[in-house]
Design goal:
Elements lengths: L2 H31 L16 H5 L9 H17 L4 H27 L15 H16 L7 H5 L3 H30 L4 H53 L3 E6 L4 E4 L1 H7 L3 H4 L4 H4 L2 H17 L3 E9 L2 E13 L5 E10 L1 H23 L3 E5 L5 E4 L1 H7 L3 H4 L13 H14 L5 E3 L4 E3 L5 E13 L2 E10 L1 H29 L10 E6 L8 E10 L3 E12 L1 H19 L4 H13 L6 E9 L4 E7 L5 E3 L6 E2 L17 E5 L5 E5 L11 H17 L5 H15 L10 E7 L4 E7 L5 H15 L6 H18 L4 E8 L2 E8 L19 H8 L2 E7 L2 E9 H12 L1
Antiparallel strand pairs: 1-2, 1-5, 3-4, 4-5, 6-7, 6-11, 8-10, 9-10, 10-11, 12-21, 13-14, 14-15, 15-16, 16-19, 17-18, 17-20, 20-21, 22-23, 23-24, 24-26, 25-26
Helix pairs in contact: 1-3, 3-4, 3-5, 4-5, 7-8, 17-18, 18-19, 20-21, 22-23, 23-24
């Protein structure tokens, strides 16, 4: 039916209902007003009923209760056509009133009570009209069985069933029991009161029975509802469980229609669940896959057990591999009533497996292509894998290598060492490979033992941590190493010989104790450019030089030898430190690409002064007795070889017994360390060494060793040569005497010398010193003019005698004849002295000579013998 025809039918129904209501209302108004509108004679006039009209009862007029019922029926029809549920419910209630009006007429007939079928003295309702009203009321109430009050009786649920039973009971049993009560009264079985009591008792029994039956039905409904809820919850949980599975899960009936599917199945098919459930397999999957799926379902149902298959499916232009398992779902009788399938996307798993296989193949290829023999052992040291190189190295097939302890591949005497190395490596748990080549041996199938290099590493396998051993025969390498070691030692001896010859052996002066340390570099065969020198000078002075040619090797050592020779020669020419340094700078500038740091100082033991000049060298440390070492200030300058920058000297006064420390940068320089901090550490170390020892040469040696141990704890890894020179200044004592140029001055000089040596507790020098003083004074009186100045300087066990006169001629020894009475003075002085010299100055000439206790003893012994 079209929408237009439906609207027309509704309009016609509403018009008919309205007409019926108006007719009923008009008839009712005739009764109320007492008039006669002729409604009953409007279409057809009944002339034969005029006597009724004359009697006051118009012919054909319906009874008042019928008019009310007709008006209610029309109103109810109008309400049922409205969309609102509350209006529909009111219309259904009016229908029930129409039904009750018809039933009242029938109850009046059954109980012989005419008053139930009429209103007052008016004409009563006809029985057939009552039947029509009952049917009309029932039709109005049930016209819309799913809406309003009718929905309570007509629904398929428990309330509808109970409502229908109770309605039938109410409509049938009370009238029947009332009729039976009246029949008993009419027969005379009981009176009115007993009849009322029986009626009430019957109603109670009937309605109690109805209540119990309703409760029973309600209980069954509750149980069924609880079961339904449990099943619904189980179904919901099952659905949620299925949705959380990473696999595709689906259930189909025996016809191939989907009854359930999870979220992963929705994602794979690209369809929502509402479009999957209820549809056949061919309606969800592509024809090719649907045909294969139906064939798999049929195979599973035929076998009655689970079936496994693998499908290759393309989703979003990407190939996927699904592993599907189909199994039947039995009913209560054990017969299959549905098919369940679980599909797992194994694309990544298959790819990972293929990758693992490729990795295993690469590992096997790597083992076979390795240049060394590779052995893989388990935690107990049993060989589980070996390559072809291992077969060739040990001279046995791979089948013999597998399953034996790896220690059995070593000679009997070396098995404990190999086992200890393997256990130590596993105990440390190191991840990086460790190589051992010292005293590690292997043996082949013929029993030949040979040295090997073993590299241990860790492999993480499925069975735990495995141990890999890369074994290499190093017999040839050992022979080459032995030859190289011999050659290296030979070259090292040559280098040390060259180094010592270039550096020389600086003299050890009795009056100037020194501690000397030279630590060669761990590279370049220990040859470097460090050097130092102690140069005795005239007039109780000593020159000390220390230098460092930048660079290492033979070239630096050659430059060092040239500089040492040049420095020694310039120092012997009695040059001041700054003049000497400037001459060295010019010399180094002539060399190609050379830079040299150097420090030269001159110690004047008699004056207690030090003249210092430094060319970019680390500062000199000076420590007075009992005090912390300090840096001696020197003008800042650049290394030798830069050129164009004059070098200046400075003078410092030192207390007797002070200690000087000269060193090269290899002692204090360290990668990443602050140079000032390292120098401060050296000063602290020297202070602790000097404080805890006495002022002897042995204490100076111990302090030098302490400095090297502290600043260079691992000399085998030090990459620069180191020079350290510690100098202890002597406790010098000086006396002087002015003598006139006359013969008796020789006697005064002898007495002065004897008294001074007695005070200084150096009596061993008295005899020789008096002879030397007498000869020098006598020579000066004979060949010089003016007064004489005699000076005595005692430093340790060394005595320096100096005589100054105003002569401009240096003393010259001459060869005296056997009969000559003079001419032997200087020869005698030279015999009693360890050194003699002459110094010219503006006031004249100074002749000095040096002697010590040992020399004096030797002279006296020679004279006596």
């Amino acid at each position: 039916m079209s929408r237009a025809s439906g609207r027309l039918s509704v309009s016609a129904g509403r018009a008919a209902a309205l007409c019926g209501a108006v007719i009923g209302l008009a008839s009712l108004m005739e009764y109320v007003s007492g008039g006669c509108f002729g409604i009953d004679q409007f279409f057809v006039r009944d002339d034969t009923a005029d006597h009724l009209l004359a009697a006051g009862s118009p012919p054909g007029r319906m009874a008042p209760n019928t008019a009310v019922a007709l008006m209610l029926a029309g109103s109810a029809q109008l309400m049922l056509s409205r969309p609102r549920q509350s209006v529909v419910a009111c219309g259904q209630a009016l229908g029930l009133l129409v039904l009750m009006l018809g039933l009242l007429r029938w109850y009046g007939l059954i109980y012989r009570v005419p008053e139930l079928g009429r209103i007052g003295a008016y004409v009563g309702m006809a029985p057939h009209t009552a039947s029509a009203l009952v049917l009309l009321g029932t039709g109005i109430f049930l016209a819309l069985p799913r809406q309003g009050l009718a929905g309570l009786l007509c629904n398929t649920g428990t309330t509808g069933m109970m409502g229908r039973r109770m309605t039938a009971t109410v409509l049938v049993l009370p009238p029947l029991m009332g009729w039976l009560r009246l029949q008993g009264q009419d027969i005379g079985w009981y009176g009115t009161r007993l009849g009322a009591a029986l009626l009430v008792s019957g109603h109670v029994c009937v309605f109690m029975t109805v209540v119990l039956l309703s409760l029973r039905a309600g209980h069954r409904v509750e149980v069924a509802h609880s079961r339904a809820q449990n099943r619904l919850a189980t179904s919901r949980w099952s659905q949620e469980f299925m949705d959380h599975l990473p696999a595709l899960v689906f259930i189909k009936d025996l016809e191939g229609r989907y009854t359930a599917a999870n979220a992963e199945f929705e994602r794979a098919t690209g369809l929502p669940r509402d479009e999957i459930v209820g549809r056949l397999t061919q309606e969800v999957l592509s024809p090719r896959f649907a045909e294969a799926a139906r064939a798999a379902d049929a195979e599973m149902l035929a076998r009655g057990s689970a079936v496994h298959r693998v499908d290759h499916i393309t989703i979003d232009d990407r190939a996927h591999i699904y592993s599907t398992t189909l199994f039947p779902l039995p009913d209560q009788n054990g017969r299959p009533h549905a098919v369940c399938g679980i599909s797992v996307d194994e694309t990544a798993k298959v790819a990972a497996h293929q990758q693992v296989e490729r990795a295993h193949q690469r590992f096997r290829d790597l083992m076979e292509s390795a240049p060394d023999a590779l052995l893989i052992t388990d935690a107990d040291g049993t060989v589980v894998m070996a390559n072809a190189q291992a077969e060739r190295l040990f001279g046995m097939p791979r089948s013999h290598l597998l399953g034996i302890p790896v220690e059995h591949l070593a000679p009997d005497a070396h098995r404990p060492r190999l086992s200890a190395l393997r256990r130590a490596y596993r105990r440390l748990g190191a991840d990086r490979p460790v190589t051992f080549d010292e005293d590690v041996w292997a043996t082949d199938a013929d029993g030949r033992a040979f040295p090997v290099e073993v590299s241990l590493g860790t492999l993480k396998g499925e069975a735990g941590h495995l141990l890999s051993l890369a074994v290499r025969d190093i017999s040839q390498r050992k022979r080459l190493e032995a030859e190289l070691s011999d050659r290296y030692r030979q070259q090292q001896r040559i280098a040390y010989t060259l180094q010592n010859s270039l550096m020389g052996d600086p003299p050890r002066l009795a009056h100037l104790p020194t501690a000397r340390r030279y630590l060669p570099s761990a590279q370049d065969a220990g040859v470097g450019g460090d050097w130092f020198d102690v140069i005795p000078l005239e007039k109780g002075r000593t020159g000390i030089v220390i230098g460092d040619v930048m660079g290492r090797g033979i070239d630096a050592a050659a430059v060092m030898g040239q500089l040492r020779a040049a420095t020694h020669a310039l120092a012997k020419a009695d040059m001041d430190p700054e003049r000497l340094m400037n001459h060295l700078d010019s010399f180094v500038c002539e060399l190609r690409d050379q830079l040299v740091t150097c420090c030269y100082l001159v110690l004047d033991h008699h004056q207690g002064q030090l003249s210092l000049c430094s060319a970019g060298h680390p500062p000199v440390l000076a420590a007075d007795a009992g005090r912390r070492p300090r840096q001696l200030d020197a003008p800042i300058s650049v290394p030798l070889g830069v050129g164009g920058v004059p070098h200046r000297q400075t003078t410092h006064t030192l207390a007797p017994g002070s200690t000087l420390f000269l060193y090269t940068d290899g002692l204090v320089e360290e990668p990443g360390a602050d140079l000032d901090a390292r120098i401060a550490l050296l000063a602290e170390t020297l202070h602790s060494g000097l404080t805890g020892a006495d002022h002897t040469l042995g204490a100076l040696e111990q302090t030098a060793d302490l400095a090297l141990r502290t600043l260079i704890p691992r000399p085998e890894r030090h990459d620069d040569d180191v020079t350290l020179l510690a100098v202890r200044l002597p406790d010098t004592r000086t006396r002087g005497l002015v003598l006139p140029s006359e013969p008796r001055s020789a006697s005064r000089a002898r007495h002065f010398t004897a008294r001074a040596l007695l005070d200084w507790r150096a009596e061993d020098l008295t005899e020789a010193a008096q002879v030397v003083v007498t000869e020098l004074v006598t020579r000066a009186i004979r060949h010089g003019d003016g007064s004489l100045v005699l000076s005595l300087h005692l430093a340790g066990t060394e005595l320096t005698v100096e005589l100054t006169d105003h002569s401009a001629l240096p003393p010259r020894p001459r060869r005296a004849a056997s009969a000559d009475e003079d001419g032997r003075g200087l020869l005698l002085v030279d015999a009693l002295s360890t050194a003699r010299g002459t110094r010219f100055h503006s006031e004249g000439t100074s002749v000095w000579c040096r002697m010590d206790t040992a020399a004096s003893t030797r002279t006296r012994w020679s004279a006596r013998t």
